[in-house]
Amino acid sequence: MKPKVAFICVHNSCRSQMAEVLGKLLASDVFESYSAGTELRSQINQDAVRIIKDLYHVDMNETQKSKLLTDIPEVDIVVKMGCNVVCPFLPSKHEEDWGLDDPSGKSDEEFIKTAKKIEDKIKDLAKRIKNDEINYDGEI
């Protein structure tokens, strides 16, 4: 059974959304991707949508929306995107913080850098799951 991975941050509009789409695109054979936050946004960050569309040819406006932690199933692995204040808490068997800066309001270059960092981290996470380097079995 594939582990469920939740990418979380406060607003679920930018980094966590990018991670969800890249997880689905690059690692769906290894894990299921979800994203969520503690506050809803009416729409996903449109700069993130544009950059993901340019780089990966996926329209997040079509495939995703802002979700609360309670909107997603129970997960095995939680990835915090990097929260300046307090990251939301979600029970899981494994948790890590990717410490990514929020590119919101910054240049396209910053969004591209963030997307590429997320891509690398998704591939690394998939590799670690495949190699049994992450323990996500057992009870939470």
Describe this structure in words.
Helix content is 36%, strand content 13%. It is α/β, with parallel strands linked by helices and 140 residues long. It has a single domain, classed as 3-Layer(aba) Sandwich (Rossmann fold). The radius of gyration is 14 Å and the shape is globular. The relative contact order is 0.23.
Helix percent band:
25-40%
Enumerate the spans where pLDDT stays under 50 for 5 or more consecutive residues.
none
CATH homologous superfamily title: Response regulator
- β-sheet strand percentage: 5-15%
Structural class: alpha/beta
Largest sheet: 4 strands, parallel
| Quantity of strands, as a count | 4
Q: What is the CA–CA distance across the termini?
A: 16 Å
**Briefly, what CATH class?**
Alpha Beta
Order of helices and strands: EHEHHEEH
Mean pLDDT: 93
What characteristic shape results from the CA principal axes?
A: globular
State Rg.
14 Å
Q: Descriptors for this entry?
A:
4 strands; single chain; Rossmann fold; 140 residues; 4 helices; 4-stranded parallel beta sheet
SSE map:
Layout: E1 4-8, H1 15-27, E2 32-36, H2 46-56, H3 60-63, E3 77-80, E4 94-97, H4 108-130
Parallel strand pairs: 1-2, 1-3, 3-4
